[in-house]
Amino acid sequence: MASEENNKQKPKKGKTSDEKKNDTKNIQSPLKKGIKNRFVYIGTIAILVLTIIAFVLIPAISTGTSSGELPTFGFWNGTPIQYSPDSYFADQVSQINEYLRQQGMDEALAQMYAYQVWYMAFQNTAMRTAILDYTKRSGMKISEETLDEEVKKITQFQVDGKFSIEKYNSTPLATRISIRDRLRDDLLVQNYYNDMMSLSPTTKEIDFVSSMAKPQRTIQYVHLSYETFPQERLLEWARTNEALFRTIGLSKITITTSQKDAEKVLDQIKTNALSFEDAAKSHSRDSYADKGGDMGIKVFYDLKAEFPNEKDGEAVMALKKDEISPIYKGENNTWTFYRVNTEASAPDFSKSSVLDEVKSYLYNNEKSVMESWALEKADEFTNETTKTSFSAAARKLGLDVKSAGPFILNYGKPSFYFYGQQIGLFQEPYRSLENELVGAEENETFLTTLFSTAKNTVSKPVVLDTSVIVMTVTDDKEGTDEEISYTKFSYPYFFQTAMENQIRNTILSSPLLKDEFNSAFTKLFVTAGQ
Predict the structure, then answer these.
(1) Burial category of 173 from C-beta neighbours within 10 Å (exposed 0-12, middle 13-18, buried 19 and up)
(2) Residue 511 DSSP one-character state
(3) Is 480's pLDDT higher than 90?
(4) For strand 247-255 and strand 335-345, is the pairing parallel, antiparallel, or unpaired?
(5) Higher-scoring residue by pLDDT: 293, 66
(6) Which one, 152, 363, 401, 407, has the greatest CB density within 10 A?
């Protein structure tokens, strides 16, 4: 059956079982050397389980680019990664699109998410191209007999569920060759993964990982939230940094062509040939243009970010009402000038709204000020616990004692996909958990402190995202056999997922991959949309 497709070579004699075993040789590719840390949660390679909503519009590119060539999205080791209607690339776009439609995704959002879907298809094609390159260089082969058996399974060549040689021979030769080539590549990729995934975790490794589910600790703790940063400390800091909270009413015009063009617009305004508002609407290229350049009231700490040189920001703050600033060169080749609508004024810290803004600024820009205060209070509390009990020390300092747990060593919450469901590597015990500790179980410092602090002793202060806590371990027990067995069962699947992701990441980050997706995609879709 394969002779005609194989350059009319004579049919080969049947192989012995030993020879058939050598149809696919084990690969010693660079990937095996690249997989060093297998116990790393990277994600999942379940390609079609996407977290994007998309319907993919496929541009009319069956004839290729304007030069008549197929569009090339990149190269693997010199081999072009191209799109054509009957290519693997096209199949990937179609399959991802079909999967999303089956999920009931809104097709009206097509163009917004087309980029993500096509890029995923490109990455899948790059993966396949790389694997086929590895198999070719390693000498991996698929026998013609094996291909014959796979061809017989294709329904296109079957009658009443059985392979029909007549139906097969009536198919055009070019089609048969294409089918066999695709099957050969599919089998090479499959065998590659079978070889690479033949590794499995040892019993000792599984026992070690599952043992991490054994220690379970419950705590009492006090919580020093940045939300409770004292008003007097806030006011003291605000007065020291008063200049940051000065306000000014401004309008601005941003020119993106050249300094000369900016000077022309500014000259038209100064000679009253054009009002500032009209100039902004017709020449400015920023988010304020439609409003005639009006920026409203700006606080200096926000305004100064617009100037590479802070002195320029101070110069604008010093302008009088209706004065216009010089032209300032900004980032990304922009030229900007400002007009003062309301002169700069000092902040009024007697207003709660102003102090709220100061507090918001601290939280978002200088959280260390709040952290230092919380650590001071935590140290004060810790010193008090050397004289009395944990609860008594909390009462003396006006702090609430709360309980949480049990916690296990589940840093990063590693997981994997199993039949389309995301499954955690460890079975978390049921526990009470206040809002301020949500996410703490993924904090390395928190877990290190929790599992290194002796029972009934007081920990060092732990800095979380929005607070500082001090804890004491009140209960230390081992997990149940059921919880340990769960991790022993799930770890081999997690291991395989990590291996698959390591292979994927190794290929996609390889210097052999030349990614030209953005330019090709933009060229095709912009052209198609015009």
Answers:
(1) exposed
(2) T
(3) no
(4) antiparallel
(5) 293
(6) 407
Residue 457, Cβ density class (10 Å: 0-12 exposed, 13-18 middle, ≥19 buried): exposed
* Other residues' Cβ atoms within 10 Å of the Cβ of residue 48: 14
Q: Distance between alpha carbon 524 and the CA centroid of its chain, in Å? A: 26
Q: How many CB atoms lie within 10 A of CB 268?
A: 16
State the Cα–Cα distance between residues 459 and 378, nearest whole angstrom. 10
N-term to C-term CA, the chain: 49
- Domains, the chain: 17-202+509-529 (1.10.4030), 215-227+354-478 (no CATH), 247-345 (3.10.50.40)
pLDDT value of residue 49: 32
Q: What is the pTM of this model?
A: 0.66
- The mean pLDDT value for 392-417 works out to 92
Distance of alpha carbon 144 from alpha carbon 158, whole angstroms: 19
pLDDT interval class at 167 (50, 70, 90): very high
Are residues 120 and 50 in contact, defined by beta-carbon separation less than 8 angstroms? yes
Question: pLDDT class for 324, splitting at 50, 70, 90?
Answer: very high
DSSP string, 67-131: TSPPPEEEEETTEEEE--TTSHHHHHHHHHHHHHHHTT--GGGHHHHHHHHHHHHHHHHHHHHHH
Rounded distance between C-alpha atoms, residue 119 and residue 54, angstroms: 12
Amino acid at 461: P
The DSSP code sequence of 353-406 is HHHHHHHHHHHHH-HHHHHHHHHHHHHHHHHHHTTS-HHHHHHHTT--EEEEEE
The residue to which tokens 């600024």 are assigned: 361
Residue 433 has pLDDT above 60, yes or no: yes
Query: CB–CB of 435/417 below 8 Å?
Result: no
Mean pLDDT along residues 400-427: 88
Rounded to whole angstroms, how far apart are CA atoms 194 and 197?
A: 5
288 — phi, psi (to 5°)?
-100, -5
CA 325 to CA 165: how far, in whole Å? Answer: 85
User: How does residue 431 score in pLDDT terms, banded at 50, 70 and 90?
Assistant: confident
- For residue 230, say if its preceding peptide bond is cis, omega within 30 degrees of 0: no
3-class secondary structure, 140: coil
Residue 148 tokens, joined: 């014959």
The tokens describing 288, both together, are 């304020």
Amino acid at 484: I
22 within 8 A of 139, measured Cβ to Cβ:
no
